[in-house]
Design a protein that fits this description.
10-stranded mixed β-sheet; 12 strands; alpha/beta; about 300 residues; Spore Coat Polysaccharide Biosynthesis Protein SpsA, Chain A; two-stranded antiparallel sheet
Length: about 300
């Protein structure tokens, strides 16, 4: 391990070339001694070639196939030498002082294993950055949001805070950006590669907290998140992956009764979504191909 490196930034890339290049530009403006590792999951849009050409100082790992987010992140983490390891999505831009603020906070709070920033949309609007661990009510509101205020409340796992910038304890940050203490990883291990995509950061933070580490949000650190630039390319397939990961997460950390109850809530919600998709198809709002893809996804999740 290189003692001169404060931070190792690990970015997993999949067909987000334009966002990845902007992300790297923002990271490399950071004043901290750092290294950047990009793991490209077999992108077909020239992402890896662009990184190699424009940012030769970045360590580039090229995968021949898409091995999934967790496995690719672990590839990067295994090569990282920093005191702190940063998981950063390629569709983010790190604002000035953000990494410095989180590192400074972690330096002064040795019991904290993970720190996340405040996320903002490109228009400057605040994005939900941190959450409680999933509950049955959250599963219900995922399909039946009822109203805006409830969907964005603590009852749906959303934290709220004022603009004072004071760090506060959370269950887990959104995985778009999180800074993890090396000692915490050495204690609990790396990401569970059984998660292809989604929920791996939730599982990780659950394991950190069970091991006695605290998890915090540092609102002073601001990161712009363009959100889901990779996964939205294959939305129906990603819907299936989301629920597959949730099943795995709940099986690891919740009771069998919780898992059964969640499955019934999801199935009820899926019936509603199937009905709505059928109505949109009959009205001509979606074509037969899109309708077929979504219905196949709903059925796949229903049968899990």
């Amino acid at each position: 391990m290189n003692d001169q490196i404060d931070v190792s930034v690990v970015i997993v890339s999949y067909n987000t070339r334009q966002f990845l290049l902007r992300c790297l530009a923002s990271v490399l403006r950071t004043a901290l001694p750092l290294e950047v590792i990009v793991v490209d999951n077999a992108s077909s849009d020239g992402s890896a070639e662009a990184v190699a050409s424009e940012y030769p100082q970045v360590r580039l790992v090229r995968n021949a196939t898409n091995v999934g987010f967790a496995a690719a992140t672990n590839q990067g983490l295994s090569q990282a030498g920093g005191r702190y390891l940063v998981l950063l999505n390629p569709d983010t831009e790190v604002c000035s002082g953000a990494l410095e603020a989180m590192v400074e906070f972690l330096d002064h709070e040795p019991q904290v294993g993970v720190a996340g920033p405040q996320l903002r949309y490109p228009n400057g609007q605040r994005q939900h950055s941190c959450f409680t661990f999933p509950t049955l009510l959250m599963s219900f509101l995922d399909f039946f949001p009822i109203n805006y205020r409830l969907a964005n409340s603590r009852l749906n796992g959303r934290y709220s805070w004022d603009d004072g910038g004071i760090p506060f304890a959370i269950d887990h940050p959104l995985g778009a950006c999180m800074v993890v203490r090396r000692e915490a990883i050495e204690q609990v291990g790396m990401l569970d590669e059984g998660f292809f995509i989604y929920c791996e950061e939730v599982d990780w933070c659950w394991r950190f907290k069970k091991a006695g580490w605290k998890v915090y949000c540092v609102p002073e650190a601001i990161v712009v998140h363009h959100e889901a630039q990779s996964t939205r390319q294959r939305a129906p397939a990603m819907f299936v992956e989301l629920h597959r990961s949730r099943h795995r997460l709940f099986a690891k950390h919740r009771s069998p009764l919780f898992c059964w109850a969640t499955r019934q809530i999801v199935r009820l919600g899926l019936l509603r979504e199937m009905y709505r998709a059928h109505r949109r198809y009959r009205k001509g709002e979606i074509g037969v191909e899109e309708y077929s893809r979504w219905m196949a996804s709903y059925r796949a999740v229903f049968e899990m």
